[in-house]
Amino acid sequence: MSTDAIVLLKEDHKEVRRLFREFEGADRHATEVRADLVSRIVEALTVHTYIENEVMYPAVRERVPALEQDILESYEEHHVADLLCAELDVMAPDDERFDAKTTVLIETVGHHMEEEENDWFPKVRDALGRKELQEIGAHMLEVRATAPHRPEHPSSLRKAADALLR
């Protein structure tokens, strides 16, 4: 398994997209299936945004100052995704806003992943090179082992509170 940070993040993106497709293809009346898929989406995104916010973004921000604005925008996109995940995590699939909120999450995160993969990642790869990306990726794997899996986890709540109180 590669420890290249970009490869690891793209693998996460692939899994999230797969879950999105499953949700979009699920029978609207299959509430248990839809609830399970959203739970898995929330978990995947909670872990993913955590390791990007805690490891990847600070590392790139320090090493590639030219990407400062891109990183700040990414933090804000994660904040929106985190809020939607926290709301979805406590909603029932028969709530009238469940599908709408999930659709907004899918659209928002889909846009974010496209920007990262098509614009941001190539710039990061050019600026950092293979060795640094492997070091960052190894650190991401360490942090992933203890990353929160649910939005109600104290470190996830701290992240949301920090954003609100700034």
TrEMBL record:
Residues 147-166 are annotated as: Disordered. Residues 5-124 form the Hemerythrin-like domain. Pfam families: Hemerythrin. Residues 149-166 have a biased composition (Basic and acidic residues). This is Hemerythrin domain-containing protein. It comes from Kitasatospora cinereorecta.
